[in-house]
Amino acid sequence: MPDVRSLPSIRERCELTRFNQATALRRWLGRLSYLAALLAAAVIVLWTLRRDERVYWSAPVSSAHAMFQRDCRACHVQTAAPLTRLVTLNDAHPSVRDQDCQQCHGQTSFDHSPRMHKDVVHGCVECHREHTGSAQLADVADRHCTVCHANLTTTQGHPHVDPSVESFAAHPELFLWEAPRDDETRAARRADPASPVVFQDNIWRDRTQLKFNHARHLVTGGVLTAPPRAGEEAAHTDLRVLNCSDCHVPDAAGQYMLPVNYEQHCASCHKLEFSGKLAVGGALPHESPEIVFGLLRDRLMKYAEAHPAAVVEAGDAPRLPNKSAAPPSSDDKWQWVESQLETANDGVFANVQHGCAYCHTLREVSPPSEHGLAFQVVPPNMPQRWLRGSRFDHRSHQEVSCVVCHDPQFNERTPEGHAKFGANTELASESSGDILMPKLASCRQCHGARTAPAAAAHTGARANCVDCHDYHQHGERGTGKLDVWLKSNR
Amino acid sequence: MLIDRTHRVWMAVTLVLLAAATVAYGVYARSSPEGPRGGSVPGMLFGIVASLLMLFAGLLSLRKRFPAWRLGSVQSWLRAHIWLGLLSGPLILFHSGFQWGGLLEQIALGLALVVILSGVAGLALQHLLPRVMRDAIPAEAMFEQLPIVCARLQMSADQAISSVCGAATALAPAVEQGDPASLLAGFYRQQVRSFLDPLAKPQHPLADATRSGAAFHQIHLRLSADLQPCLEKLERLCAERRNLLLQAKMHRWLHGWLLVHGPLSVALLVFGVAHVVTAFWY
Fold first, then answer.
1. Best mutation site among A20, A29, A95 for testing chain B: the one with the most B CBs within 10 Å?
2. Judgement on whether residues B53 and B160 belong to the same structural domain of the protein
3. Which of A209, A450, B60, B237 sits a CA distance of 20 to 30 A from A127?
């Protein structure tokens, strides 16, 4: 077909006076544009009439604030804060101010540490970002922490923690195991009576005054349910196999272990029973020495009342031949009881076989107290929380055998790594001076920078700062619970 | 519009601006503990710049309505529209931190992406199709004139058929008389004339070159020699009409994307205003 696009041809074929007439496409373009504008406006009007402002969210609010999701004003008290940010070119004008959060919450931006630099925190929302789709506002990114802790400085004195923690991979060893960085820290820790550990012979030792042998209690074959009396060892075969959970019981939340209690965890095997006159009235209670001493006095007095002959025999009063001894007077009985109590100091308190000294460290009192008590029991000093600067949940780790984390030598003894999951409860510790708290390597078996076996198994767990640490009132309240601390007036 | 050498400066400027914005975004993203977000100062600045670029791109239609305005040539506006509109895409993503946001933001961002993608598709079509049309449509006419050109084709055919068959025979209702002229006239009335009509559909039997050739060949065998020139002219006119049909089809491809690009741009403008108002309010 010939090309007819020459000018004469165009002039012949077309009607140039009707050049700029609107085509159907142009007409439809105009119509559709108006329709699109109307539809968009109608949608916005509909949203406005429904008073449902959720459509304007960038993402849903966190589950904790879901009750306010239809009431933006509950948190966004001030208006046009973003405009203020834009005009001032300063992000320190958050859409939700601290006082808006503190309508309900008790925490503040600066309750982390009294020695923190306050100019680096610009309010609650700097860390707790709403409308991000995160279910938990406390799930704060590490960078909020490392912005200071990667190169930590304090307003006064040296930092109490490692000043250069950039990530979990760079996290220092847990302080129970960490060699003190300098003499000042070493001395400060040694002088701290609240510290559960003491640095001896280049290693931290548990400061507890209680004597306990984990290895002996957790032997595979079981332990005797009561210590055999002299001469009864061969006949005593009542064995019981103990597990960690026989003594270490989690709290109601499953988060931490409750303190070990003599009556619940020890008494069934270690009864406070004594022979002779001290056996009167059965086992002694596990109470303070003063109470036990008073109870013994009471029991011996009753014994003296019931057995006057014993008092007389013990006495040194002369009597005529073929004449029965005169009944002991009250003073005689009292003196007999006092003399017996003197033996109780050794028989009950200092008795390392069955008495207090079997488990407790005693301090000799010289001269004896006005009641005749020659010993004091040194408080066991067993902390309920070891790592108070952190938070831990035993329940979420219940799939792992206790010794995996609590036996410092476990990893050396069990190099096969994750084969360790199981019911193995053997514990190598023979001294209560051993610190049985985990080393960071135990955590790293699963968390963060993982070792080869875990990595090969494609397992892994979070290792964010907030998984273990709490910002607010860090290390002071020490509940270890992620507590939003709501005010009661709302 | 062809992407030719005249676009070099715009392309270079756009790439430089994009590189600068990317570097700025990288610095901003690395320094934001929770990641970039639209409500921060850098995020808002990205959003404002992207919105201004989109608004400027939208002004092209206004510029076209007033060609007499001395605000640069429409061609220059179109180049700015293309490159600055393209730049607005990454900037809007930098504003959102590559997040889709809530329902309003999802709608606005989705519209922005569709508008940009439709624009890119349109640009590609406008770059490629004219070359195809230059080769494939030798009978190309101004699109607005197609009905007139078709009407003139029809008029030319009417004249040709009247000259050999007589006006009464050619255009009268079909009365089969058996002679070649009547045969030609009947073929013209029943098929050719309707095809030359400006409103002829692409589904018409003569719109297909093969079927058309077969139909004309059948008639050709039955016509006398004196009628052959007329038949050949009709066939030429039908070929031109087919060419115009192809042109109309390509024209729809060439400009049909505007039916998506334009209206969605308007909707984006409305939702964008709603987003700006609510974002600044809270």
1. A29
2. no
3. A450
User: Looking at the structure, do residues B275 and B204 belong to the same domain, yes or no?
Assistant: no
Report the gap between the CA of A88 and the closest CA in chain B (Å).
9
Residues B149 and B232 in one domain: yes
Cis amide linkage into residue A367, ω under 30° from 0: yes
User: Which of B153, B252, B253, B282 would best serve as a mutation to test chain A binding (most A beta carbons within 10 A)?
Assistant: B282
Tokens of A415: 């190099």
**Domain count for chain B:** 2
DSSP letter, residue A231: T
CB contact under 8 A, A14 and B264: no
Range of the domain at B177: 143-253
* pLDDT tens across the length of chain A (490 residues): 777 767 677 777 777 666 556 678 888 999 999 999 999 999 999 998 988 778 888 888 888 888 888 888 889 988 889 999 999 998 888 899 999 998 888 888 888 888 888 888 888 988 888 888 777 888 888 888 998 899 888 888 777 788 889 888 888 888 777 666 666 666 666 667 667 787 777 777 888 889 999 888 888 888 877 666 656 665 666 788 888 889 999 999 889 999 998 999 988 888 888 777 777 778 888 998 888 888 888 888 888 888 887 777 766 656 666 666 667 788 888 888 888 888 877 888 888 777 888 999 988 888 888 777 888 888 888 888 888 788 889 999 988 888 888 876 665 555 454 444 444 556 778 888 888 888 888 888 888 755 455 445 555 788 889 888 888 876 554 454 445 555 543 3
What number of other Cβ atoms are within 10 A of residue B102's Cβ?
20
Is residue B211 domain-shared with residue B187, that is, in the same domain?
yes
Same domain assignment for residues B30 and B87: yes
Contact yes or no for B278 and A127 at CB 8 A: no
Indicate the DSSP class of residue A447: B
Quick one: B38 and B154 in the same domain? no
B117 to chain A, minimum CA–CA distance in Å?
18
Other Cβ atoms closer than 10 A to A96? 19
ipTM of the complex: 0.86
Q: DSSP characters for B94-156? A: HHHTT---SHHHHHHHHHHHHHHHHHHHHHHHHHHHHHHHHHH-TT---GGGHHHHHHHHHHH
Alpha-carbon span B197 to A12, nearest angstrom: 18
In DSSP terms, A248 is beta-bridged to none
Whether residues A41 and B270 touch (CB distance < 8 A) is answered with: yes
Does one domain contain both B18 and B132? Answer: yes
Q: Are residues B248 and B259 in the same domain?
A: no
* Alpha-carbon span A199 to A180, nearest angstrom: 9
